[in-house]
Automatic annotation (TrEMBL):
Gene3D superfamilies: 3.40.50.2300, LytTr DNA-binding domain. It comes from Duganella vulcania. The modification 4-aspartylphosphate is found at D57. One of its GO terms (molecular function) is phosphorelay response regulator activity. Residues 163-265 form the HTH LytTR-type domain. GO terms for cellular component: cytosol; protein-DNA complex. Pfam families: LytTR, Response_reg. Keywords: DNA-binding, Phosphoprotein. This is Response regulator. Coiled coil: none annotated. SMART domains: LytTR (SM00850), REC (SM00448).
Length: 265
């Protein structure tokens, strides 16, 4: 079996380091590949590192651990999720009666070993996180038990058809069918077309929400490619999976979290 990978998300650095140290004792084969200080950073690092197990603090600034988990379980291949909480025992009862595993801060070695045992059993069974009980319905019920508000799910917006982009000193109206791929930069998103490159201010995360996922594939946190322009894939000398485009020289890196898109190619 390949080395198992983990991510720890907690807004307190000393607690991140403490949990990492406890894991080295309870599960020495597990490699902590990243640590995040908030929910947004956790999502970015999960995208980049594709960990097998994620330890999520419940209360983080901006995006909570429950918010992050809800985003993860909506994906095609969610990691195994363990919540880390400082809630009192009354609130912890909500976790006890759900299928979600949790650790009470600071996690004792004895309690952590029980969690490790559950995770190892699920991993041996190749059981996806959703099948282990980490589902959208579970999270909603958990929020209700903890007294949190559960926001309504908005209806999906229609797919994007046109883009208004800058090209030099001109503004250009681009039909979505003209796009070969999008690539985000520091302040802009580049739109690559057959006849050149244009710039838009829309973040790639917002574009993803507006694009038809059957027609546009996200292959990296900073790249979305039009499926009809994909010629194939290859591995480079570093072992990274690369997307080859029809009629173009550049090749695009596929991050770990999106490799499964190309398993059948």
């Amino acid at each position: 079996m390949d080395t198992l990978r983990a991510l720890i998300a907690d807004d307190e650095e000393h607690l991140r380091d403490y949990l990492e140290g406890q894991l080295k004792t309870a599960w020495p084969e597990l490699k902590v590949v990243a640590k995040a200080a908030n929910g947004l950073e956790a999502l970015r690092l999960i995208d980049e590192e594709a960990p097998d197990v994620v330890f999520l603090d419940i209360r983080m600034p901006g995006m909570t651990g429950l918010d992050v988990a809800a985003r993860l379980v909506a994906g095609a291949k969610p990691p195994h999720i363990v919540f880390v909480t400082a809630f009192d025992q009354y609130a912890v009862d909500a976790f006890e009666h759900s299928a979600v595993d949790y650790l009470l801060k600071p996690a004792s070695l004895e309690r952590l070993e029980k969690t490790v045992g559950k995770l190892k059993a699920a991993l041996r069974a190749s059981e996806p996180a959703a099948a282990a009980g980490i589902t959208a319905a579970t999270l909603q019920a958990l929020l209700q038990q903890l007294g949190g508000a559960v926001p309504a799910v908005a209806a999906p917006a229609p797919s994007l058809q046109w883009i208004r982009a800058s090209q030099g000193e001109q503004t250009r109206l681009i039909a979505i069918d003209e796009v070969i791929y999008f690539q985000s930069n520091d302040k802009y998103t580049s739109v690559f077309l057959a006849d050149g490159e244009s710039l838009i201010r829309t973040p790639i995360s917002k574009l993803r929400e507006q694009l038809d996922e059957q027609q546009f594939w996200q292959i990296h946190r900073s790249v979305i490619v039009a499926a009809r322009h994909v010629a194939g894939t290859r591995h480079d000398f570093r072992g990274r999976l690369m997307v080859q485009l029809k009629g173009r020289d550049e090749q695009l890196v596929v991050s770990r979290n999106y490799v499964d898109l190309f398993r059948q190619m």
